[in-house]
Design brief:
- It is built from 15 helices and 17 strands.
- The protein is α/β, with parallel strands linked by helices.
- It has 2 domains: 137 residues, Aspartate Aminotransferase, domain 1, CATH 3.90.1150; 252 residues, 3-Layer(aba) Sandwich (Aspartate Aminotransferase, domain 2), CATH 3.40.640.
- It has a 7-stranded mixed beta sheet with strand order 4-10-9-8-7-5-6, sandwiched between helices.
- Helix 3 packs parallel to helix 11 and helix 12 packs parallel to helix 15.
- It is globular.
- The structure holds pyridoxal-5'-phosphate (PLP).
- Pyridoxal-5'-phosphate binds next to helix 4.
């Protein structure tokens, strides 16, 4: 089925917004995506009609709310190819999911002298929790570096992996470099040494149809808000064997089996990891959000998105003084996340000028300070496209960027 881009764009109300009287060109999708009407409707319906706590009361509204909450668990499991919805834990976001694994896996499996390998390009959310657990346990944090073009130096992984390595942590797509990391190869190499792998899917879930069983990763995490769902929603996928072996992260309501003064026993996964009242209105929005993600990743829309990517890639490469970070060996490994600096023009000044032209981009360290240090820069400008961004918007962005550069240099 051929989809009409204008019909798709009409489903995202914020795309009709104006800033400074100009049409908004939203190119900050890697920070958070826009929300389609289907998500807004679901969110509103949950607040208007099904506002009751989940998993607790026997009344009708509570059971409707619980049904919708659990339907989202099934939808997430189906979307990412999990073996069972029992392998899906809801959290408040990707950061919370990563911290959950660091705390629970760390408590159970990491001891003094053990090692965790983290890629140099990771978002702080997939680095700082590992620094914290390493410090606490006396474990060693090892770095899988990136080369000058932004590719992971995968050839170094076999020697980094030792019998003390307890986990490898890597994003499928860096939020700065926009390159597809060779996660399947990483999983294979790590598993050969008996080491599990955590994949941070914050960006990957947006642009790819993920199959966690085919990938064979042990953990996969993402935030709802980057993939069109309500903010305050997040997902941890973990193979059942890990969920069963890990102790809980937080104690409280609904994560227990039984409680006495002398002590408590815990519920089976995934509930063991979902203490307290969850995001009742937000979680069900994952259902329409992931439907939208499937639609936007379907072949005809993906072909348009690829054309936009190719155009931006070529245009940026031809701007004098522009240094792109995350230079693909071939276009197919590049996602439409473009981070760059321009000699003689500060990234924040460029971002402010683009904003005045109606274009929303990100500037700064992108929560990846070690990567900035790696490339010897204090920050970058990032334009991140979603499949609903058009060629016209891409052309306007490139022309506006050139204009902004000419105003500064
Ligand atoms: C690759 C990556 N990991 C983790 C995160 C953290 O996500 P959140 O702030 O939604 O928890 C982000 C957000 O930008 C990201 O891009």
């Amino acid at each position: 089925m051929i989809h009409n881009m204008q019909n798709i764009r009409a489903q995202f109300p914020q795309l009709q917004e104006k800033v400074y009287g100009k049409a908004l060109v939203y190119l900050d999708n890697a920070a958070t995506s826009l929300r389609p009407q289907s998500v807004i409707d679901c969110w509103q319906e949950m607040a208007l009609r099904y506002n009751a706590n989940v998993h607790r009361a026997v009344h009708k509204t509570a059971s409707e709310a619980t049904l919708r909450y659990e339907a989202a668990r099934k939808a997430v499991a189906a979307h990412i190819g999990a073996a069972s919805e029992k392998e899906i834990v809801f959290t408040s976001g990707d950061t919370a999911a990563l911290n959950l694994v660091a705390r629970c896996f760390g408590t159970a499996f990491i001891g003094e002298g053990d090692e965790i390998i983290v890629a140099q390009s990771e978002h702080h959310s997939n680095l700082v929790p590992w620094q914290m657990i390493c410090k606490e346990k006396g474990a060693v944090l090892k770095c899988l570096p990136v080369d000058e073009s932004g590719h992971l130096q995968i050839e170094l992984l076999p020697q980094l992996l030792t019998e003390r390595t307890k986990l490898v942590c890597v994003a499928d797509i860096s939020n700065v470099l926009g390159l597809r990391n060779p996660v399947a190869q990483i999983v294979r190499l790590a598993h050969e040494k008996g080491c599990p792998v955590l994949v941070d899917g914050a960006q990957g879930i947006v642009h790819e149809n993920i199959d966690v069983q085919a990938l064979d990763c042990d953990f996969y995490t993402f935030s709802g808000h980057k993939v069109y769902a309500a903010p305050g929603t997040g997902v941890l996928y973990a193979k059942r064997k890990w969920l069963e072996a890990m102790p809980p992260y937080m104690g409280g309501g609904e994560m227990i089996e039984s409680v006495a003064w002398e002590g408590s026993t815990y519920a089976a996964p995934p509930y063991r990891f979902e203490a307290g009242t969850p995001n009742i209105a937000g979680v069900p929005t994952l259902v329409p959000a992931l439907e939208m993600a499937r639609l936007l990743n379907s072949a005809d829309i993906a072909a348009e998105a690829d054309a936009v990517r190719d155009f931006v890639l070529e245009s940026l490469s031809s701007i004098p003084g522009l240094r792109l970070f995350g230079v693909p060996a071939d276009r197919q490994e590049k996602l439409p996340i473009f981070s760059f600096t321009v000699e003689g023009a500060h990234h924040e000044d460029l971002a402010l000028l683009l904003d005045k032209m109606g274009i929303a981009v990100r500037s700064g360290q992108m929560c990846a300070e070690p990567l900035m240090t790696r490339f010897g820069v204090t920050g970058m400008l990032r334009a991140s496209f979603a499949p609903y961004n058009t060629m016209e918007e891409a052309e306007f962005f490139v022309a506006s960027l050139k204009k902004a550069i000419s105003m500064l240099i």
